[in-house]
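Q: Is it fine to ask for two folds in a single conversation?
A: Yes, each is treated on its own. Send the first.
Q: Here.
A: Result:
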Amino acid sequence: MTKKELLASLEQEMINDTSLPLGEARLVFGEGTADAEVLFIGEAPGFHEDRLGRPFVGRGGELLTECIKSIGWQREQIYITNIVKRRPPDNRDPLPEEIEAYKPYLARQIEIISPRIIVPLGRFAMNYFLPDAKISRDQGKTFTVGKYKVMPMFHPAAALRGTTVLNQFKETFGKLPAVVSGEIEVIKPEPAQIKKSSEEESPQAPLF
């Protein structure tokens, strides 16, 4: 099977899995090319994503698309998804048990796409790979987690709330081509950083 077929099969498997939480909401599996070198991962769909069945299509998604174009890329060239693939009620944060339930599917999705770099958007997605990291301190840095490069960034919705974070978001985005080409140094996380959780950042267990 091709990568595209494998992703379609995985999506159907998720649709059929009645044990997954938030089953009353629409499944937002992800979109983009199965051969993407860059994989963006958010925390969960919001109102607009639930309505359209596509990730990052609200105001935050518009900013993400704008920044993708600003570095000469198109959304069709990358892949975008979330950890939890259904909208939590009232756009609340995903619960640890919800993240845990969707984790195996995200792991398989990542394995199929096999990107050169993973870009977690926001602290929930970042702590999925780097449980002890802090978004204000570690966004824009590039880490090695398992066999992947991981570069956390602020969530686009957070970037829209203030000029300082917005400027940092855009500056970090500008680094992406150099990260993909290998021009930027990759940091190996300290053992404590990938094993020990930080209550302040609501971390999750590492993926790899």
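Q: Second one now.
A: Result:
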Amino acid sequence: MGALTLALIGALLPLPVWLWLRWQVEARFSAWIMLDAAPWLAGYLLLLGLTMRPLLSGGAVAGALLFIAIAEFAKRARLRDSLVFTDGGLLWQVFVHPRFYLPFVPWPALVLGIITGISLAIAILVLEAGLALALAMRLIILFLGTALLGITLRPLFLLPRVEIQCDPTVDAARFGPLACFALHARLAATERAARQARHAPAPAMLRLADPAPHLILLQLESFCDPRRFGLTQPLPHKDLLAQTALTQGSLAVSAFGANTMRTEFAVLTGLEDAALGLDRFNPYFRFARKPIGSLAWKLRATGYETLCLHPFYSRFFGRDKVLPALGFARFDAAPAFQQAERVHGLVSDAAIAQRLVADLSAATSPGFWYVITVAAHGPWQGDDPARTWADCMAASDAMLGEVMRAAKACQRPVVVVAFGDHRPALPMAQGGKETDYVIWRSDRPGDGRAENLNAVGLHRAIRDAMQG
């Protein structure tokens, strides 16, 4: 078989997977199809120029596309959402923390993909002989691959008069999924510095009550009242907080079942999605790696100790870089909870409550504790995942009770805010994105006023509660 024929066969190996990926996003065939094909053609040509093995190169690109296609399929099936360019920043977490990702992928597809990929790689390595091409031809192949890679990384010059809608569904259908990733990534990069500069930390403008109250902001994993979905799971402490809350109710978040960082960032900064542009899909990917104005910066400027407690790996979502940029002077992650109680391998909410109670009793100056729980993270074990999740909600509720009792015993007033980052990724919870929140003060009982908010509205309500 001739070298040209082998090269053509290798180039065509990724084609079926690429077409499946385009079909999933309902991409139209148009003049932009070559821009969508450029990434995988670039990858093939570069690998071919380096290895001189067309089947190995084509198979490797096909495998990468298959990974993307399965991720697209799983995300649509579980979260009713499409892949976006910022998901690339989460890729490493799939391999380092597979328990949070792989169980949501249909296991037949996962097993078949792994077995097929390994089998083909072994067969190709054993059977395929490298092409014997002249150095000049190899350089031409590498040059073409590099040129296509340059188009992929800098695609905006191709579209001087074409408006990008900045909607993944619309743009993926128009340009194709890979082209959409490239266009959105580049557009976000060109706008990011100016957006960051507009929202840099500013001098504190908060006029706090006297004495300045502690703030405990509890971001509860997958927290949502199970009674929303017909489950008979009482939450007595959450109900008690709600009865005497300054305000409580439904919290509209931007995503279903995942994307904690979107809710987290909006609550801390009060920034609307429009202020972030395309970085709204994951503000922690690049946008929040530089100092951004936040509640933590404002409280820190008025003398508060600012501390984030998250009993998980500090690099998850890049929080080790992001949280200092959002104004937290300390970030106590997994190492601070090495001896803590665990449930299914994750630090329990009871252990976090124990830590908060100890911190409150020892505090000599006003403090802001931002707590990110993890014990209720899916997938949920057992024959009845919904029941297991509801049991996790009961554990979160018990933590609220411990925090409320410690706040009442504290000499300094304490503002306690609890909210759910997103609904659980369970079939019964689909059809909406709202979670629950409550804002309560130890020194000033409210009347439990009900008010439905979004994450930005919750930021404003927290500031109001702190100001007396």
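Q: Anything structural to flag on that second result?
A: Two points. The chain has a mean pLDDT of 90. Residues 54-79 form the longest helix (26 residues).
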